[in-house]
Structure formats: structure tokens, C-alpha cells
Design brief:
The chain is an alpha+beta fold. It is about 45% helix and about 20% strand. The strands form two sheets. Strands 2-3-1-5-4-9-10-11 form an eight-stranded mixed beta sheet. It has a three-stranded antiparallel beta sheet with strand order 6-7-8, covered by helices on one side.
Length: about 350
């Protein structure tokens, strides 16, 4: 670990010098690249220097205490500093281990979230809408921007499926744990006898692909235009602005009908297609990685669940980490940080236990 930290420290000094070199300053692209690397290793280096300072304090304090010529007041001060430094070192070591954990390369990306009703009929569609509302409110709290790609509504205001882009620094790092089957237990609006029903919704979270990462041969695409359907304003059904793209080699189909402009719908649909293709490629490459790090949403069956939302008990349970919170109203109103922070902590603990740092 300390060998790696010394390499980071040396590299940090090199980057600090390069930032002020004329060649770097005059080239915006190069300067941005240097700044990005500098910023990424700065937290590690600062914590390492804090650790080294604590080690130095231990050495200096011991030297004073062992020096027969030191007066009592100086020894008392040295003893106090020694105790404080010794207490801080184990905590600093743990913090360094966490900072050295391998970072998910997708963490800083925008994300594409796809929510689909599973088992449970209309109640499942209504809960799909509730999840979309929860994620929208959470995104707003985090300063992220949401753009709907496609939306298929039901007559009672539910969503059979909805696809949307979440844009903002670190969006994937916060949304990636949402992939899977979400189970809901509550009395449906359509239930007259007051019985609690259980239904399920699937959520898929895809890192948005950069253009340079996914090359698509135009000959591999079938692009169709059609009239938008469902709620959405007066322009619906009047113009063929909706877009359907089929990627022939994989059979992937993406639709976008949210925008009035055919061009904008095509642009959004291509973003989703590229992201799905990138995800497929990453899943192939990461076949050996633990399944909880991949986006596996299952079939939408009630038994394949990552989380349960029990409305009568105001309870949320995340089954992956055994977390239970009795504040469902707050969570459904976009207060998701407590849940996501717990998942991040659990993931770090797993990495530390495996010695991945």
C-alpha cells in the first residue's frame, strides 16, 4: 500500500509543476487532462501526507521523551502529542485503504434509467410511476437534470415503462445500486376490500456511453418514424416525430417519442442504444466480477427482489445488505441518500475484506 502511496505522491508533485508550464497552460485540452488527473489523486495524497505527519510526530515525541535533557514541560507536551498521533494513525490507515479502493470507471458518467412494470398488472404500473417520481425528486436534490426518452402510460396514470437520462457529475455512482427488482406491498387504489397486494417493478441503470467508445455501422440500423401516442400535448398524433431504432446485429430496439423534433428524438434514441451496447460489452468483459456489480434486473417476478417497499408499515428493506428503515414517505419523496450511502459503505467493506486496495 505504501509503495503505491509514494508513487501517487511523486506523481502529484509532477502534475503540480506541469500545471504551470507554458506548454500546458497554452493547450486547454492538455491542461484539462492534467487538472483531471491532479484532482483525482489529490485526496489520496493529502491523506497520505497527513498520515506521514502523524508518523513524524510519533518519532519526534519519542525522541524528546527519551532525551534526558528535555525539561518536564516539554516532555508533557510531547507525551500529549504522542498519544494524539498514535490514536489518529489507525484511522488514517483505514481512510487511506478506502481512498485506494479501485473506482468504478463508470461512476462519473450520466445514466440512463429504465423502469418497467413487472408482475402485478395495473398496480405494478402505478408503482413504476411512483419510482420515477422518487428518482426525479432525488435527482433534483442532487442537482442532476432529467430528460425523458420514452414513456408508455396507462389509463390510471401508471407507467408500463419509462426511460430517462439523468445528467450530472457522479450520477452513475449514486444510481447504479438501483438495478434490480423492486417489490411493493400495499393496498392498491383499485382494491375495494382493503387487501394488501404484492407487485414488482424492474429497474435497469445503464452508464451513458461516450461517442468514442461505441462505434455503430449505419448499415446495421433500421430507423423508423411513427406518430407519438399517449399523453403529451396537442402535437401528439399529428406529426411522425417519434423514432424507433433497431440494431440488427443484436436485435436491440429503442424508441423515443418525448420531443416534438424528430432530430432530437433520434439523438436521444442513439444515446440509449449506444449505452445499451456499451453495457453489453462491459458485461462480457466483467463476466468474472461478482453479480452485484452488474445490472441484472431479472424477469420482474416478485421473488427476484433487491428491495421491498411496505406501505402499511412505512418500511423499506434493502435485501442485499439487510437494511430496514421505517421512513418510507421520506424515501418516496426523494430522500434516498441514507439508503444509497449504506449500499456504498457495504460495497467498500466488501472490497476491503477482499483486500482490493
Amino acid at each position: 500500500m505504501f509503495k503505491r502511496l509514494e508513487i501517487f505522491d511523486k506523481r502529484y508533485n509532477e502534475l503540480e509543476k506541469r500545471m504551470y508550464e507554458p506548454d500546458t497552460v497554452s493547450d486547454p485540452e492538455q491542461y484539462q487532462k492534467v487538472m483531471k488527473e491532479y484532482s483525482s489523486i489529490e485526496p489520496v495524497v493529502k491523506k497520505y501526507r497527513e498520515y506521514k505527519a502523524a508518523q513524524q510526530t510519533v518519532e519526534d515525541s519519542l525522541a524528546i521523551l527519551e532525551d534526558a535533557g528535555s525539561d518536564d514541560e516539554l516532555k508533557e507536551l510531547a507525551s500529549s502529542e504522542l498519544d494524539e498521533a498514535k490514536r489518529s494513525i489507525p484511522a488514517l490507515e483505514e481512510e487511506l485503504k478506502i481512498l485506494l479502493l479501485p473506482k468504478d470507471p463508470n461512476d462519473d458518467r450520466n445514466v440512463i434509467v429504465e423502469i418497467r412494470g413487472g408482475t402485478g398488472g395495473e398496480e405494478s404500473s402505478l408503482f413504476a410511476y411512483d419510482l420515477f417520481r422518487m428518482y426525479s425528486m432525488y435527482a433534483e436534490r442532487k442537482g442532476y437534470k432529467i430528460e425523458i426518452v420514452s414513456l408508455n402510460e396507462t389509463g390510471l396514470g401508471g407507467y408500463k415503462e419509462v426511460s430517462f437520462i439523468v445528467s450530472g457529475q457522479g450520477a452513475y455512482s449514486r444510481f447504479k445500486f438501483e438495478s434490480g427488482t423492486h417489490r411493493v406491498q400495499r393496498v392498491p387504489q383499485t382494491e375495494s376490500s382493503g387487501r394488501i397486494h404484492t407487485s414488482a417493478v424492474t429497474v435497469a441503470v445503464l452508464p451513458e456511453a461516450d461517442d468514442v467508445e461505441v462505434e455503430i455501422n449505419p448499415n446495421d440500423l433500421d430507423i423508423d418514424t411513427f406518430r407519438s401516442s399517449g399523453a403529451g400535448g396537442q402535437h401528439i398524433n399529428k406529426t411522425s416525430s417519434a423514432i424507433r431504432i433497431t440494431h440488427k446485429p443484436t436485435g436491440l430496439v429503442v424508441e423515443c417519442q418525448d420531443e416534438r423534433s424528430q432530430y432530437k428524438n433520434k439523438d436521444k434514441a442513439m444515446k440509449v442504444l449506444k449505452s445499451r451496447l456499451l453495457k453489453m460489452e462491459q458485461d462480457k468483459q466483467n463476466e468474472a466480477i461478482a453479480s452485484d456489480r452488474r445490472s441484472q434486473v431479472g424477469s420482474g417476478d416478485r421473488s427476484e427482489k433487491i428491495r421491498t417497499y411496505n406501505f402499511p408499515q412505512s418500511r423499506l428493506t434493502d435485501h442485499r445488505i439487510g437494511l430496514t428503515l421505517y421512513k418510507l414517505d421520506e424515501i418516496m419523496n426523494g430522500n434516498l441518500d441514507e439508503v444509497i450511502d449504506a449500499l456504498v459503505t457495504a460495497r467498500r467493506a466488501e472490497q476491503l475484506a477482499k483486500g482490493e486496495w
